[in-house]
């Protein structure tokens, strides 16, 4: 029974510490969230385009090497 009591007390302490820590957090305002979201979306599309180009170039290079050595 002491294990259950220990677990309940530990859980209660954790939740209280969590509440205290969440009060200390500085949350971004709506403008900051919108601007960082725009940066993330732009970055995702930019990286996708970059990897598409790199993948296309490497695919053509590997296919050219295979064609060269298969003749």
| Helical coverage, percent range | over 70%
Number of strands: 0
Structural class: mainly alpha
Tally of DSSP helical segments: 2
What's the pLDDT, averaged over the residues? 95
Topology of this protein?
Layout: H1 2-24, H2 30-70
Brief overview:
The chain is mainly alpha-helical.
Structural write-up:
- This protein has one domain (2-70).
- Helices cover 90% and strands 0% of the residues.
- It contains two helices and no strands.
- It has helices at 2-24, 30-70.
- The longest helix is centred in the last third of the chain and has 41 residues, at 30-70.
- The mean pLDDT is 95.
Keyword list:
mainly alpha; single chain; 71 residues
């Amino acid at each position: 029974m002491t294990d259950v009591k220990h677990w309940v007390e530990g859980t209660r302490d954790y939740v209280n510490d969590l509440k205290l820590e969440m009060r200390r957090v500085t949350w971004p305002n709506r403008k900051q969230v919108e601007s960082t979201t725009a940066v993330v979306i732009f970055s995702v599309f930019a990286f996708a385009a970059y990897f598409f180009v790199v993948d296309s170039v490497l695919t053509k290079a590997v296919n050219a090497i295979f064609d060269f050595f298969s003749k």
